[in-house]
Amino acid sequence: MSDLIHYQFDDGLALIGLTYPPVNALSQALRSALSAACERAASDPTVRAIILHGSPFSAGADIGEFGSAASHAEPSLPDILMRLSLIDKPLIAAIDGLALGGGLELALACGYRIAVPEARVGLPEINLGLLPGAGGTQRLPRLIGAEAALDLIASGQSLKAAKAAESGLVDRLARSSATLLEDARTFARKLLADAAPAQPSAPFSEPGISLPATFITDYQAKHAARWKGRQAPQRVLAAIQAACERPLAEGLRREAELFREADASTESAALRHVFFAEREASKVPGINADTMLRPITQVAVIGAGTMGGGIAMNFANAGIPVILLEAQAQTLDRGLTQIRRNYEISVQRGKLSSRQLEQRMALLKGSLDYADLADADLVIEAVFENLEVKQNVFRTLDQVCKPGAILASNTSTLDVDAIAAVTQRPGDVIGLHFFSPANVMRLLEVVRARETAPDVLATTLKLARRIGKIAVVSGVCFGFIGNRMFEPYSREAHRLLLEGATPAQIDKVLTDHGLAMGMLAVQDLAGIDIGYLIRESRREVIGHDPSYCKLGDELHTLGRFGQKTMAGFYRYEGRERLDDPEVTALAERVAGELHIQRRQIADEEILERCLFGLINEGIQLLDEGTALRSSDIDLVFINGYGFPAWRGGPMHEAECIGLDRLLARLQHYRQALGAYGEMWFQPAPLLQRLVAAGRSRIEKI
Ligand code: 3HC
Ligand code: NAI
Questions:
Q1: Fold observed for domain 5-263
Q2: 482-692: what CATH class?
Q3: What is the 3-class SS of 638-661, one letter each residue?
Q4: Coil, strand or helix: which one is 431?
Q5: Counting ligands in written order, which one lies closest to the CA of residue 140?
Q6: CATH number corresponding to 299-474
Q7: What does the pLDDT look like over 222-250, one tens digit per residue?
Q8: Is 521 within 8 Å of 577 (Cβ atoms)?
Q9: Cα dihedral sign for 487, 488, 490, 495?
Q10: Which one from 39, 65, 74, 125 is the annotated catalytic residue?
Q11: What is the pTM for the complete model shown?
Q12: Please, are residues 181 and 14 in contact by the beta-carbon 8 Å criterion?
């Protein structure tokens, strides 16, 4: 019939298999083939019931088609599903692997669903800035109730079929993947024997009837903070409201309207960009599917401090045994106690069972002896940020570790080449830069040093997935991708304080833009002392600017290290952050000493200077080859620095703003800010080349 569909007639049953690897995305071609197969089964009088199946069942609409004509091309998914729901023979969706988005909507249009217990079902459209657009917002509330449907759709999360069966989303569980089709046949024959209707009546035919009138507004208020700046959640609410208030046909029309708006939105374009960026990030020149991977069954972490403890937890969480090595028994005990405490908090929050806590702790073994690392497949060093200290650790590792062990450093600023150089096996050395808290943050910068072997890189990328991280490859440079871009961002925030802005004004501009935290609140959290130490190590690069983070240096002199001393750019009372007139007075004094004219600064200027500075640095990183692609940079900022995913990351945002405008604004500040502008607002040469060539995408030319 078609390469995309496998059609089989089996004693009164039509088995229609979707065979469009890897995930049966419902592209225009698959939709056509599916529609034709269903019509054939519907019109064949010998077919009494139809089983739709696929392995995986389907990951939904083809995301690559969104924003293009193919997305709406005939036959449209909503039309096909409407047609399926009208076929007067029982349709059974047999779900293996996953049924997500349009894939689950396909199953919802069938009268019945049978699934493998481990299969995952969900409507993740909101994560793409969309809403379910093929009947999901209308059929699901009628099947499981409006509240449960809204929870599933608004969370964007999937659940196991075994759990979904409890709410009635799935009618029956198959014994296993291997028996799914056999179990589906048995189910179909039972339905026929019972003369079951093609579409059973909906358990919640009027989904809104028992809900309070304020259900939707209450839901919105409860999630307002999380949804700030976003539109997709509002559209989801509007569609559920329609399901509660209108008949099915009208509700479906409303859903279609909302979906069209969402499909055309900048929010959805940004989130789709992020979806593909995440998949693209693991594609790295020099490695491919044939690159042999090194087995990783035993990990070791050196240093049980803030980072080492969190890094070790990642592996224990994934069931991988970890040896945690420290220099002294006391620090080791403290580190292990802190890890237990972190797990206990998860138990208190109901995210972990006490049994899981003990299982994870059992995977962690403390040690004071390097000889214990002899069998480790991967060692991650997380000791003090000092080149000599780290080089000493690597010299020792070179002696004690088995051949083929991967030796990684979690350094945030140091030269990984210089660390690798002290070993006899630089090909085995790599940077694995975790972000704090390391057990929580999704980003892992994988620093490819000059001699890092391809299989070492490939193995760590694979391992990153295993521990739930998004890995982005960076070359070696000060700060790698993220901290290198963070530097101009931080510098501008500091400088704007001297020019007349307040910490609260700057932070509000940034959080209003969608950043998780304002820059100055971040500085207080990370520690003014830490920022100072990093600057101290770079005075030869920054010393030509007497104003460079000068307020931060002054706060450091005053012992205002941020939250840990209850005072930094703000003062703190308990957990409350308060404006501090002393900081304004300090800024006035320093500005006077440096002859910086203070003035009212518009919010737009604050945003542009903070944001454009970091984008300019990102473009430079791309040009240098430190970052492989612009979308990698977006992932770094979204997953490591709280940049809003719904803006697609700073580089995507720059493309939306327009590269010519970005260049013009950088040139404006270069002139308007005098000597300071001349120092720091030089547009990246690649940006100038891109604009000159009339290009709109940020890519190396
Ligand atoms: N459309 C197009 N391509 C898709 C896709 C989709 N819905 N889902 C996955 N893919 C592609 C990926 O891009 C990747 O391609 P690549 O190998 O060329 O990079 C390949 O399938 C494998 O995907 P992953 O690398 O992500 O594999 P995993 O096994 O880690 O994850 C997954 C599989 C859980 C299906 C994950 O890909 C995923 O979450 N996909 C998106 C699911 C989704 O959001 N569906 C809703 C779509 S919107 C919709 O249906 C609208 C409807 O309401 C009208
Ligand atoms: P930390 O000071 O909390 O922990 C360092 C630990 O290493 C201490 O427990 C110390 O006892 C131990 N240690 C020092 N020398 C050792 C040796 N020779 N052998 C065994 N143990 C030794 O420091 P933190 O914050 O955990 O940083 C560690 C590394 O991670 C640094 O390179 C830092 O730059 C990097 N990093 C830190 C981040 C952060 O936010 N704290 C973020 C990303 C990276």
A1: 2-enoyl-CoA Hydratase; Chain A, domain 1 (3.90.226)
A2: mainly alpha
A3: HHHHCCCHHHCCHHHHHHHHCHHH
A4: strand
A5: 1
A6: 3.40.50.720
A7: 999 999 999 999 999 999 999 999 999 99
A8: yes
A9: positive
A10: 125
A11: 0.95
A12: no
